[in-house]
Amino acid sequence: MTLDPVPVDGLILIAAGLMVIGVLFVGASERLRVPAALISLGIGIVFGSDVLGVVDLDDMALVRDLSVVALMIILFEGGLTTKPSVLRESGVPGFVLANVGVLVTAGITAAGIQLLFRPGWETALIIGAVVASTDAAVVFDLVRRTPIPKRLAGILEVESGVNDPFAILLTIGLIEMTRAQPSVGDWLLLGALQLVGGLSIGLLGGWIGTRLLRTRLRSSGLYPLLALGMAGLTFAVASSLSSSGFLAVYVCGLMIGALAPRHRRSIRGFHSSLANGADIALFLLLGLLVFPSELPAVAGRGVAVIAILFVARPIAVALAMVSFGVTWRELILLSWAGLRGAVPIVLATFPATAGVPAGETIFNIVFFVVIASALLQGTTVSAVARRLGLAVNVPAWRSIAEAIPLEDVDVDLIEIELTEDLPLVGSRLRDNPPPPGMLVTTVIRDNRATIANAETVFAAGDVLMLAVDSEVERITEVTAWARGETETEPERP
Q1: Which of 6, 98, 254, 400 is most exposed by smallest CB count within 10 Å?
Q2: Class of the CATH-defined domain 401-483
Q3: Among the listed residues 447, 443, 408, 409, the one whose alpha carbon sits nearest the alpha carbon of residue 428
Q4: What is the pLDDT of residues 346-397, one digit of tens each?
């Protein structure tokens, strides 16, 4: 006797199989020196309709909706892992670059396309708006594996996290122009709702989330789920009010990452895995959606758009950064590291699903541009940073302190990994004791744990365990102590 398979069984088999393949290949991407996004895209293309034909996916609206969910998860995790100190240093220039960069890049790109191919200003402007934004999924991954200076990494993170509202505003507004003639007031209202509404709702959602995450729950495993729920609520509320859900969920993540230090280790670990899975699934879906046989027809226009972007991006960066004391070497690196990825592809589904006459062509051109951007820029950013003399030893995103809350007691264990750049290295505990109310209990060196004493000399690579009370400010004091700072500075562990 046999049981008939449930209809969803085949879907689970294919989805799980693709995820396993994607994880294995993406896990080896560092050795292959190929961006993880490009690997996932390639796997999707191979298993899609045009090559092996394992998955026949032609529902662009479904892929668009699933991609939005994946981007929500990726942006929330990006906010969680953005250091407050980096945000203070790079937030304003990143925000300016996000908005000025999109506007200038879209305008120059549209003008170049119209000049070269004469598709009509409506089509040229839509393509310019769609490819103008950098991508959070690709840039977050790039920053975490590329040793570039902290300030530049922060600018790229903030730019990719907050440039979506302006790109969405331009894309939707230009699509509406193909069907109606929105007034200046309509543009201003949509822009205010997207930017101001998204920021306000994100701050409110983050504030509520930090309060809820201080509630004592019966299991530490519930805190990451609570944070995920707040991310979804923040995104949905913002979107339902015609505000930017992407901006709102990123700001919500920033708030929770900065102001909820207890259980942050489990929250960040959970969301890091979830974001990695969403990243792989996102690019797999987009790869399954495209028909590679249609790309040669747009290759010439795609190459031209890439060439125009290589002119437009540096101009946009130079204009946006003119007031922030950025050197010419930093301008070059910021220009080269502005990768396109999932967001432009997702935005390219908007005209295709809205019935814009050139929608399918726009999607294929954008897909070609994203592949070329990932291949040309994603594989060479490290080399460019080294050539410009801007490479650093430790990636800017790397944490110093990790809080490990102890259940039912008001004491946390804080774990600090000492890197070579920290002034604490080489000193004795007697000469550099931690602030009052903290105790260095254990030093882990070469996988061996020893009890710390006054004569213990700290070395690079040591992992220190400190017992502290669970006040929110404590972890910032520990970070300041490890860095030799005279004033405490809030920091994401």
Answers
A1: 6
A2: alpha beta
A3: 443
A4: 888 888 888 788 888 888 898 899 888 888 888 888 888 888 988 776 544 4
pLDDT attached to residue 490: 41
Which residue ranges make up each domain of the chain?
Answer: 60-158+260-387, 401-483
Report the distance separating Cα 188 and Cα 306, nearest Å.
30
Q: Distance (Å, rounded) from C-alpha 67 to C-alpha 341?
A: 12
- Proportion of the chain above pLDDT 90, given as a percent: 17
More confident residue, 115 or 295: 115
3-state secondary structure string, 310-357? HHHHHHHHHHHHCCCCCCHHHHHHHHHCCCCCHHHHHHHHHHHHCCCC
